[in-house]
Design goal:
- The protein has 322 residues and is an alpha/beta fold.
- It folds into two domains: 230 residues, Aldolase class I (TIM Barrel, Alpha-Beta Barrel), CATH 3.20.20.70; 71 residues.
- Helices cover 41% and strands 14% of the residues.
- It has 13 helices and nine strands.
- It has a nine-stranded parallel β-sheet with strand order 3-2-1-9-8-7-6-5-4.
- Helix 7 links the parallel strand 8 and strand 9.
Amino acid sequence: MTRQASPNSETAPIVSMAPLKGITDYLFRRVYTSHFSGIDRAIAPFINPQRKGPYPDKLIADVLPENNSSLTLIPQIINTEPEGFIELANRLYDIGYSEINWNLGCPVRMVASKRRGAGMLPYPEEIAALLDTAIPQMKPALSIKMRLGYQEVYESQTLLPMLNDYPLSEIIIHPRLGIQLYRGTPDLDQFQACAARTAHRLVYNGDIINLSGFSALQQRCAPVNRWMIGRGLLSNPFLPAEIKGIRLSSDERRKKLQLFHDDLYHGLKERLSGPGHLLGRMKKVWVYYIHAFPEKEKLLKKITRAPSEKSYLKAVDAVLER
């Protein structure tokens, strides 16, 4: 296969919503984009692989076009065997997606132990073999989301030059090891070393939580100008807009934070079965969302320990100042 380079030549930052399994589903994406601006696209949380196809609508409901009209979406797959990889890729193409993303970054042990996500990174020859088989037979373009490695940085140092032989649309790199999960700080030196080893367009992902931090990353990582925000987007939903130069008054911010919560809560209440599932999902969001309310972090326990909808809403109202 021929070497194809993708330059980092955009002048305006391109900001993507990262996939957070169990949080950033189509309802979250729809509600988020109805209240906050600045996001250019999203990568959906990975579709659970099946031992055998086909993939009916109920298994890919999160990425069905009718559920995703508010935002440019790229579905993500985590398959590591060629037949299922090709079948799912082409199924997604047939419903309208011209690009998909391959997850080589998920650090969760239950995933990685199956040689999926970041657990695949120690096996670059297997990655190349899958691409050799899949790319000639798959219809959509392919990008990759990865880490520096699962256990050692040499894993990315070995893999990235090999990936230059494949026509990837881009590579998204979270500069931590899989075994770190989200502990420690991103290794920017190693991210720059990755940039030197690839001919593909890079996207930076990891710990973008405020505008000053983003500005420092922008200078450090130039000419990279594509960014992916996950946990930071929940902690500061206004950050993508701030990156694009959009500022809101404190009153506007307060109203949007209230309305976002209410729309997400009621949307999930309609969709999920029972208060247990509803509160479980909302509490996952609040672990990050609480940081959007300076000096209110101490109230998080009242939310996460709320045993009923009534006590949950009372705790939330205290944070939202209603």
